[in-house]
Each structure stands twice: as C-alpha cells, then as structure tokens.
Amino acid sequence: MLITRKAEFSASHFTARPDWTPEENARVYGDSANQPGHGHNYELEVTLQGEPHPVTGMVMDLKELKEILQREVIAPFDHRHLNHEVAPFDRIVPTTENVAREIWNRLAPHFPGGEGPRLHNVRLWETADVYVDYGGDQA
Amino acid sequence: MIRLTKRYRFAASHRLHAASLSDAENRELYGKCNNPHGHGHDFILEVRVRGRIDETTGLAVDQDRLDALVKRAVLDDFHMKDLNTQVPVFATVVPTSENVALEARRRLCGAWQDTFGGRGPALEAVRVLETRRNTFES
Question: Which of A28, B28, B63, B127 would bridge with B137, disulfide CB 3.0–4.6 Å?
C-alpha cells in the first residue's frame, strides 16, 4: 500500500555554477541564474510503501511522518535561501532535480523498509506547472 | 532515474461525432458533446520525461528545449483552434481527449530525436486534463 503526505515550504534560490561565467550560466539556466535569486512556494508529496499494521491498521502514524518531514525538510528549508543556508546547495546547484534528490537523501534513512514503511517516492512541485519525481537510484 | 513533469495549456474546441454512425446514434453516444456547434475546454497537457541528473548542471532535461518542442509540435497547432476543422488528423479521427493525448504523444515522439538527440531524456507519458475531473494518459 502507498500512503502520501503533503507539505510545503517557501524558499529562495538561484541556479548557477560558481566556476562558470555569467554567460555560460545564463545559457544553461536562463533567468534562474540571476543573483541574488528568486523564490518558489515548493510543494512536497512524500509517498511511503508498506502494509497496514495488524493492530493499528496504519502503515505509519501520520503524526510521526509529519514530525520527520518537519525536522528533516521544512524546518531547514522554509524561508531560507537554499544556496546560502542549506547544505549541500553551497556546492550543488539547487535545481528542482537536485532539491528533490536531497530531500530523498534526508528522508530515506528514516524509512528503510523491512518491518516498517519504505520511502517510495518524493514529488517536488517547484511551481504549479512543473514537478519532479525521485524514487532513488534504482527507480 | 528521475522524472520531470511539465504542464502546458491550450484552449480548443471540439465536437465528438463519429462519421460511421448515424446522427441519432451520435447523439445517443456522445450526448451534449455531439452538439453540432462544438464546445471548448481549457486543456492541460502534461508531458513527463525520464532521465538521469547531469551532475554538472543538476538538470535531467533542458526545459527550454522541451518547452520549444511542445510549443512547436503541439501547442501552436492546438491552441485557440477548433480541433475538428483546423487540425487535419481530426478530420477523420474523433477528437476525444483520448485521441488528443495519442496525437500529442505521436507528435512529440516524432520530433524527440531531433530535439534531444540520443543522450537526452526519454518521453515517459503524455496526459491530457480535459477538465478538472477528466484525465487521459498515453
């Protein structure tokens, strides 16, 4: 069974490599390379895979899931400038793809599978018109 | 692998009418969608690609290139048009949203290689949202 929890954070970023010229960055990233940056209302959908517990009937206590999302993602990301305040985006360009993968990397250790739920997918909406899905290296 | 989905919009009119059926049969089958004057929707076209994150750029797909492809191959021909009379394929194929999704996918597939070359992302799915309630995926 798959269960999905939504969360939101607002953050600013720019997408540019420090070792490239402004012209190179503009060519690859367009306006998104402009500094000091711009912001998005990101929306996050985290999907877990597991079986309902025979006693509680739940794959996972959603309160606990909410707390993990809050601690690992929302608290460090919300109302922050990703490039300047959230590692590893001081050295990795915070594209939607990389932000989704970083969220996966932060959450995956909490949901290893086995007896409990396994992290199945991270969907990150950057705007209402674009989102990425990341399900780990093997997916 | 990572999947990136992008939404595009086009407003278009269509009429559902199968030439091989009688007028009465069409009215019975398609109901108000068979209205001779047609009707329209604000369609949403979702294009989902699958690829690897380029570790230099952090990007799995060049979105400017994808946008240009979707515009050229689909939106320029569909947006603000009557699908039945202004998009040639729908002169003979009923422009149900199923067929609109299939046609959009066919057009994107046809131009994919020229746009992205052999190392680019793969086209995974094309979805047409006809209204908030009806979605069609190819």
Answer: B127
Full pLDDT tens readout for chain B, 138 residues: 999 999 999 999 999 999 999 999 999 999 999 999 999 999 999 999 999 999 999 999 999 999 999 999 999 999 999 999 999 999 999 999 999 999 999 999 999 999 998 778 999 999 999 999 999 998
User: Looking at the partner chain, which of A94, A101, A133 has a beta carbon nearest the beta carbon of B3?
Assistant: A133
Q: Which residues of A touch B60 (CB under 8 A)?
A: 97, 132
A26 close contact with B: CB closer than 8 A: no
CA distance A92 to A94: 6
The secondary structure of residue B120, as a DSSP letter, is S
* B65 Ramachandran zone, left/alpha/beta (phi>0; psi -120 to 50): alpha
pTM over 0.90: yes
What angle, 0 to 180 degrees and rounded to 10, lies between the N-to-C axes of helices B63-70 and B97-116? 130
Domains of chain B in sequence order: 2-137 (3.30.479.10)
> How far away is chain B from the Cα of A35, in angstroms, using its nearest Cα?
17
Task: Inspect the interface and report whether the beta carbons of B53 and A98 lie closer than 8 Å.
Answer: yes
Instruction: Give the three-state DSSP class for B24.
Output: helix
Is A45 within the bounds of a domain?
Answer: yes
